[in-house]
Amino acid sequence: MSSNVPFSGVVPPVVTPDTPDHQLDVVSFERSINRLIEAGVDGLFFLGSSGEVVFATDERRDQIVREAVRIVNHRVPVLVGIIDTETERVLEHGRRALALGADALVATAPFYALGGPADVEEHFRILHQELDAPLFAYDIPVCVHTKLPWKMLARLGAEGVLAGVKDSSGDDVSFRYLVQENEKNGHPLTLLTGHEIVVDGALLSGADGSVPGLANVEPKGYVRMWKAAQDGNWSEVKREQDRLNEISHIFDVTTGVQGYGAGVGAFKCALNLMGIFDSDQMPRPVKPLDDQNREAIKQVLVANNLL
C-alpha cells in the first residue's frame, strides 16, 4: 500500500443528483463534488453503479462527464465508467470520455452476450489497445454476472493491459490473493476495494485505497482512515471503520425496497436530508424512498451527528 501509487487513496463513486423532472441537477452536483474534494479525497469516479451509468443515455453520460471535468478542474483525477453490454459500445463510451477530459477509464466484463474467460480477457485487451488511457477493471459480478478471476487480473496487470482493479465482488479471498500476486509481480496494478464496510481489512492486506459509496455521505471518515493506514495506526483505522459502519445502517433500516432503490436510494435520501442534494429523485423506473423510510434514515444520520 502506497500513497505514491497512481489513483490511490479514497476515490468515491460519485452519486448523480437528478432534478424532479429527471434532468441532471448541476447545482447539487457541483455542491457534492466540491464537498468531496474539500474533504480531502484523492480522486473521483463518475458513472459507476452509484452514478447511474446504466440508466443514462449517451447524451446524459456526456453531460455528466463534461460537468464533472469542469467542476473538478484538475484538482483530483477523474475516473469515468464506460460500462456497457459489449466491447464496441464500451469503446464508444471510452473515446467520448477521453475527449471530454477523463484521466482514467473503468470497465466491467461484457454482460449481455456472455462468453467465457477468454472472451472477457480479450475484451480488456481490445480496450487497452484502442483507448489511450489508464484502464481499470471493475469487478462487480452481482451486476454483470461474471466474476473476474484474480489470476487473469494479475496477468493483465503484469502485461500492462490493466492499470488497476476496482473490486466490488465481495469476494475477500479472491481480493487477498490478487493483492499478494500483484506484489509478486512488482505492484503494477492499483488495487481499490469497493467493499466499503471492510475497507480496514483491505488496507491491512495491502490495498491501494477504496472506492466507497458511503463516502458520498461521510467522506472525511474514509479520508481519516486512509491517512491512519498510511501512518500504520491500525487501531485508528478500525475505530474509523466501526464509526462509518454505524452510518452504513442507512442501508438496512428501510423496509419495502431492495436493490438500487435501497442502496443508491439511501444515499440520495441522506444527501437530500443533509442539504447537499436538492432532490432525492431516482432514475426511472426507480422510486424515491417514502416518508417512513426517509424518517428511518434521518434517525441514523441524527444518531451519527450528520444532521
From TrEMBL:
InterPro entries attached to this UniProt entry: Aldolase_TIM, DapA-like, Schiff_base-form_aldolases_AS
Pfam families: DHDPS (PF00701)
Residues annotated as binding pyruvate: V211
Catalytic site: Y138, K166
UniProt key word Zinc: no
GO molecular function: N-acetylneuraminate lyase activity
GO annotation, biological process: N-acetylneuraminate catabolic process
GO cellular component labels: cytosol
Gene3D superfamilies: Aldolase class I
Signal peptide: none
Annotated PANTHER family: N-ACETYLNEURAMINATE LYASE
The protein's name in its UniProt record: Dihydrodipicolinate synthetase
Organism whose genome encodes this protein: Lancefieldella parvula (strain ATCC 33793 / DSM 20469 / CCUG 32760 / JCM 10300 / KCTC 3663 / VPI 0546 / 1246)
